[in-house]
Each structure stands twice: as C-alpha cells, then as structure tokens.
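Before drawing any conclusions, I looked closely at one protein's amino acid sequence and its backbone structure tokens, quoted below without any editing.
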Amino acid sequence: MGMSIIKKSLDVEGNVGSVPIEVIFDSAASVSLIRRELAEKISTITSGVGKIRLTLGDGEGAVESDEVIYFRILVHEIPAPDMAYVVDKLAVPFIIGAKTLQSWRAILDFEKDDVVVDPGLADMMLL
C-alpha cells in the first residue's frame, strides 16, 4: 500500500441501515467501490447507471459494475454523501476514490493519517 491510502473505521449509513466499516480513502482509485454483502446492509442497490470496468491496483485484475448504492459517512461530524459502485469481489470492504474525495473537497493528510472534509459540505447538505 502506497502513500495514497488512509484507513479509517467509520459508520457508513444509507436508507437500509448503518454499518461500521474499515474505509480505505484511496486517491489513486478513480471511483468509490463497495463489496456487495456490505452494500446490501447499507442501502438499496440501484442498477442501470451505466456499466463501468475498472482495472485493479495490481494492473491485472478488473471489476465491472452497473450497480450503485447511495451512502453517507460522518467525517469529523460532517455528513459526507456520495455513491459507490457495488462489486462482488473486492480485496478490501470499501474504497473511497478520487471522484468522491473531490466532491467532498477532501484532503488526505498523510502526516496525521487523517481525512479532512470541507466544513462547507455540511451547509450544502441542508439545502
């Protein structure tokens, strides 16, 4: 694991429930991905968003998905929502990728091993 990754144990919530998960914040991953068995405990799985095919970090394996869940994570008390693609086989439970990090205007602070989300995100959620 390179310097582009931070791990945090966080509650991930959706319209089905809330599950504590070890979340991997990975600035090298293009989109967010979640294992199917966790996705089913968090949110209704939606299909038809358009199939994606992603090459995995090893450069050899690939995953495909046209299913997503919508989720929310509290990062330092700031509610951070987005969607994640649901995949059957994933080496880790949940990966938050660059697209999600950008939407949250988040910064990965490797010195403090922490994730900093724009506090203005909480204000946007109230609209």
